[in-house]
Amino acid sequence: MRDPTQILTEPLLALQGVTKRFGSLMAVSDTSLDIMPGEVHCILGENGAGKSTLCNLIFGVHAPDEGEMRFRGEIYRPAGPSDALASGIAMVHQHFSLVHDMTVVDNVILGQQRGLVNTRAWAQRLERLANDYGFALDPYAKIDDLSVGERQRVEIIKCLIREPRLFVLDEPTAVLLPDEITALLAVCRRVSAGGAAVVLVTHKLVEIKKAADRVTVLRGGRVVARSNRPAEEIDALVRAMIQGDVKSLDKSAASTLGVGAPERVRNGPIPSETPTLEAVQIDGLTVIDNQGVTRLDHFTLAIGPGEIVGIAGVEGNGQSELAAALSGMLKPSSGRVFLGKLETTYLSPKELTAAGIGVVPEDRHAVGCVVEMSVAENIFLNRLDDFTSFGFLRRKELLGAARELMSRFDVRAAGPGIAFSALSGGNQQKAVLAREITLPKLTCLLAAQPTRGLDVGAVAAVYGHIRAASQRGSAVLLISSELDELIAVADRIVVLYRGRIMGNCAADPSERERIGALMAGQAQ
Amino acid sequence: MTDAMLSSEKRNRAWLRPSVMISISAVVVAGLLGLFLIFAIGVSVSDALSAFIEGTLGSPYAIAASINRSIAFALVGIGFVIANRANLVNVGGEGQIAVGGIAATAVALYGGVADLPAGLPFMIPLLAALIAGMIWASIAGILKIKVGTNEVISTLLLSFIAVWLLYWCVQSPAILRKPMTSSATLPESLEIPDSTKLPLLTGDYSFPVNVGLPATVIIAIVGGLLLTKSLFGVQLRAVGFNPVAASRAGISYSRMVLLALAVAGALGGLAGGFMLLGDQYVLKDGFSSGYGFDGLVAGLLARGSVVGVIAAALLFGFLRSGGINMEMVAGVPTALVMVIQGLIVVTLAGAAFFIGRRP
């Protein structure tokens, strides 16, 4: 037996020079890290900094190539997640692993018990635990009927019921409402107060201010900064994370990180050449899926030329269906869409492109690009006809035109002929924007989650291009689950909840709470 | 994202960059194994080898026979590669050859084309063969875009239908069987009129290579350009890699799937036409037997390159001819040639697997 006071001063989990490679990519490189019992330890870093890989090493999903891990002083070499769980390490992943047709309690029992199951006893235990942590959860509710925030609570309860010594959360706040984020951070504090350690992975600074005891900053797979007093050293941490100065950042981009208050950068005056005619008019657009569920319910909206309208809402509240219906990928069940005087409701993607609707799809890889093809082919994928004579592609001209757009949109790549998959996420998104924004006579730009997974520099560039399009007179529909992004970029905000418009708000920081409540379905 | 990147890199390494050395060594290894098998079954290796060479290169006739076989393999293989760009697997070459042969025979015998001027007597039956193959494969294309039937299954089953259709055509006097004059009348069609036979390049029956050869060369060049330089090629690739993104960019998935299968089927049908009008002259049951599947293997081994298809088609054509002679002269079962062909496939696939895995 060890002396209990000694245990407290010894790290719970210690990583020593841990390295993990994927092919030629150094995902985590020579990283050392101590997690102390009773602390909330934030891992901060941009996308691709190695945060998720680090979590997966701790949870036994991957094995390190070099270095060693010690858990409670002993060598820790998990062969898989079940080893990690057995050692007392639990993890909430970015993507949930719940069985949708089953109830909450059944999901919690799954994998915890064999043989006969006393569901009632489990349900009582679950309710008690949820009450302890200050949130309500109906053990007999079906996962399908729960909101994203509630589903995450199920994941958290699944972990907590094991009474873990180390609790790892990988980007848990990306899908949550503002209130839910606060509640989650409170749960983290409670867990750590009980003596367990919490590892919280994030790229948002607000969360660090509110909850972190210590912070480790990763960039390019390496530890670039550590802090024991994170709340006071935020600026230094941001500098380390983005390798640049906060003040040099685009103000809107910085505000979405949580540096300072959300700040709006006002657009120039809206051109009013055709004041009576809206650029885009959506009338009662309704989408009913093939299970008969109404995904989008009589959505009505008018967007003027040069106006940026933001669509706020927690993911899965009809935004995807709205975007798909407007971009010709989904036939709406009813309703009409006009672009100026032209009805575009049932036009094909090709016709919509010709009509001047540019689309930056939510899922870049599934809809926005063909990663196996070259950068040039992707940039002109919807306009290859322009570079064709007698059926043959004028490849030199295509490459030249692509090179020009790449430099205009700052798409960094070895050349226009290389595979799209070789580009970073930010550069891929800039290339997609380049394709959609340079449509001849762009009347409407539809951008869905355009900054997801991008680092701060790329976020600023995306905002710049969206604003430029609006200044040239295009109507912009910006769909985002990041409220700060909408407040910073949009002129006004429409809140979607379960496929319905819950309310119209000004894009102003003072409206933040009201928008948050509307996103949660609370009409006022 | 990283996963997608890794797997696409893997694919690049394994399939898009044909490593010539690997193909050659696979063929050599398989050949050596074949020789060992000949030795193992107790046949003199030198007898077998000389019979093989006699059967492939021994006479102008042998060379021409090998080339005629290769033509069919090459056409089916090129069609396979084109459809495969759109991520479609056309395994229906056999049936497409069969319907092509039926159409060519029917038009040549009963289409009233025999007395037309200047090449039309054989061009019209060829066109009929091409259209028949195209329609046959388009059935699979329509099934795929309308109800989502997997084209592997539909083209394969359509092949079975076509093969039995061929059987019916040559069995029933009401269709293509020649008039029954006695109980010994074979179940086959009449011989096609001389004017509908493909002209020989040399005009000499001791080297019976016909106009199918230059036609195939032209088709190969056009096919290669189509894949590498044309808008159609880029659109095929876009649909093959990511149908959703392609359709968002205005490239119709249905149109591309239908076109790709139609082209593959047209080439299969044309192969049937060439075989019938250039080589066999009489429609018989089972005339397409094995050609469709060897063509498919040629397309598979080529890893997306038309040049690769030509190389594989020639290899298989000569292997087949040599194998037949080995059986006749040296008593080596033809099945052994199939074994060697199978070994080549396995060795190549194995090599590709190991290259793909190397970090």
Give a description of the structure.
The complex is a heterodimer of chains A (524) and B (359). Chain A is α/β, with parallel strands linked by helices. Chain A has four domains: 4-88 and 165-248, Rossmann fold (3-Layer(aba) Sandwich); 98-163, no CATH class; 277-356 and 442-524, P-loop containing nucleotide triphosphate hydrolases (Rossmann fold), CATH 3.40.50; 369-438, no CATH class. Chain A has 19 helices and 22 strands. In chain A, the strands form five sheets. Chain A has a six-stranded mixed β-sheet with strand order 6-7-8-3-9-10, with helices on both faces. In chain A, helix 10 packs across helix 17 (456-471), helix 10 packs antiparallel against helix 18 and helix 16 packs parallel to helix 17. Chain A is globular and about 70 Å long. Chain B is an all-alpha fold and 359 residues long. Chain B has a domain at 78-178 and 191-308. Chain B has 14 helices and no strands. The radius of gyration of chain B is 21 Å and the shape is globular. The relative contact order of chain B is 0.21. Chain A binds chain B through residues 22-25, 327-329, 348-350, 353, 359, 361, 365-373, 377, 381-382, 384-385, 388, 391-393, 395, 419, 421-422, 425, 453, and chain B through 1-2, 4-6, 8-9, 11-12, 225, 229-235, 237-238, 241-242, 244-252, 359.
